[in-house]
Amino acid sequence: MERPATAPGIRTAPGAAAAPTVMVSELYLSIQGESTHAGRPCVFVRLTGCPLRCTWCDSAHAFQGGKRLAVDEVLRRVAQLRCRLVEVTGGEPLAQAGCLGLLRALCDAGHEVLLETSGALDIAPVDPRVARIVDVKCPGSGQEAANRWENLACLRPGDELKFVLAGRGDYDWARAVLASHDLIGRVPILFSPAHGRLDGAELAAWIATDRLDVRLQLQLHRILWPDRTQGV
């Protein structure tokens, strides 16, 4: 089993808890490409690993690999980038035991913190200072069965819901979910076309025709850097 490295000459006392760590796939400064925060400078801490395999996933490079870092080291690297807004994303960040501590530490350091999560894991333990951007997996993702519907009852001001839609069937399904769970007006709701699967203009027309009180979300980073999949 991999163990966190310790500095030369320093030993952990017998029985002492190891410093909290996370496996980090990427850590970089860019422009926030999604959510109601789109367009803002943001530091992204992308954690490795995800239990889901969505058909349209754009971060499969984060499924494996990365580097194990102490939470304190993540904070140091984030501070060097001099940006208040920080998003912890993945993969699925909540799949790592150290994620909750990292989120709490970022808040304690004075950052405005976003969490991008698949919606498959429990969001209730997340620090209340964190804005949680929670996916609802539509049938076109191939991961509809992974939705943790109990998360919808945990939503609070500052959170957001995101539906990635692969076609008209997903759109109709998402509308039914909004109605059955009485979600309109509770938190911002984002409808995003799956890249290469659904035309954004077509989705915009459906939303406008239905006067649906949701926000059309286009992935700004894909528009700005269409040939890049990492570091954006």
Fold and architecture overview:
With 232 residues, the chain is of the alpha/beta class. It has one domain (21-224): Alpha-Beta Barrel (TIM Barrel), CATH 3.20.20.70. The chain contains 5 helices and 9 strands; from the N terminus they run βββαβαβββαβαβα. Strands 3-1-2-4-5-6-7-8-9 form a 9-stranded mixed β-sheet. α1 (71-80) crosses α2 (99-108).
- Name the CATH homologous superfamily: Aldolase class I
Number of strands: 9
The percent range for helix content is: 10-25%
Percentage of residues in DSSP E strands: 15-25%
Q: Please name the CATH architecture.
A: Alpha-Beta Barrel
Can you write the helix and strand succession as a string?
A: EEEHEHEEEHEHEH
CATH topology heading: TIM Barrel
Radius of gyration: 18 Å
First-last Cα distance: 32 Å
Shape: globular
